[in-house]
Write a structure and sequence with these properties.
By secondary structure, the protein is of the alpha+beta class. Helix content is 21%, strand content 43%.
């Protein structure tokens, strides 16, 4: 099908071990409207809530900043969106190394060429990636890198956490989508290919009956710059991004796109419960 429509329900609940007096947070759970994707409806419910403000960050992501004042022992956020995904057919010129290495390209994409803490890989790994891609054009290099990452890392939930960096996941040989993306970003940037982190949702069963809610998770993938625009690839599944991918946020790495982050005032611990349901509407 050339079009798919989904309802995405993302609920995050923080349960504190005792009352806290205040919390300040940022939420990135609103899907974007852009070429290939239209967010038809989106609402965010926060309980309890003192005030909130919505804005676009530097990378174009919808952000809701919020504060909850007064004693509370839990914080619940529910984001519900209706999104339509559709194919975009476009002829693209073949990217060349000269274009990617040009001063204008490096100037525009400089933040997507940085090897930040999350995306740094060991020197010997980068050397092997350089050897494996020697003589290849950029598009073929991307394909080779994605295959190398997918071959090396096993998908294993629970082995890594949000603060795990690419070098740690690579050494362990396992991780989740975030780790696949960080390793891919590190490899592509090492080669001089601008690449950015994309977060959102992935419909796990694109053939699910219409109206049936399917348990899902937040997902992450990569977009790389080919000299004229951005192309998407999913290194976790070693395949192109398709209609089942719903875009929410972009950035340099996970730190820029975390769905929920903030601070709270109190000496209590907190347990986070996350539920994501995706329903195919047609």
């Amino acid at each position: 099908m050339s079009t798919q429509r989904y309802r995405v329900s993302h609920t995050s609940t923080y349960a504190y071990t005792g009352p806290i007096s205040a919390s300040h947070n940022e939420v990135r759970m609103t899907p974007l409207t852009e070429e290939g994707q239209t967010t038809l409806e989106s609402r965010l419910r926060i309980r309890p809530l003192t005030w909130s403000n919505t804005y676009r960050d530097y990378f174009g992501t919808h952000v809701t900043a919020l504060e909850t004042s007064g004693l509370h022992d839990s914080l619940e956020l529910e984001a519900i969106s209706t999104v339509e995904r559709y194919h975009v057919d476009a002829e693209r010129p073949v990217a060349t190394w000269d274009e990617l290495r040009s001063a204008p390209c490096r100037d525009v994409c400089f933040e997507y060429l940085e090897l930040r803490r999350h995306t740094r890989l060991p020197a010997d790994v980068l050397d092997s990636i350089s050897d494996a891609t020697a003589g290849l054009e950029p598009a073929a290099s991307v394909e080779r890198v994605v295959s190398l990452v997918s071959e090396h890392l096993d998908y294993e939930p629970g082995h890594t956490v949000a603060t795990t960096v690419a070098s740690e996941a690579w050494a362990a040989g396992k991780g989740v989508c975030q780790d696949f993306v960080h390793a891919t970003l590190g490899a592509l940037r090492h080669l001089g290919i601008p690449a950015r982190y994309v977060s959102g949702y992935l419909m796990p069963d694109e053939d699910a009956p219409v109206g049936t809610a399917v348990a899902a998770e937040s997902h992450a993938w990569v977009e790389w710059f080919d000299g004229t625009g951005w192309l998407a690839v999913d290194p976790t599944n070693d395949r192109p991004v398709a209609l089942g991918h719903v875009v929410v946020a972009r950035g340099r790495d996970y730190e820029d796109v975390a769905p929920f982050k903030g601070v709270y005032l109190g000496d209590q611990d907190a347990d986070l419960t996350v539920t994501v349901l995706i329903t195919r509407l047609g």
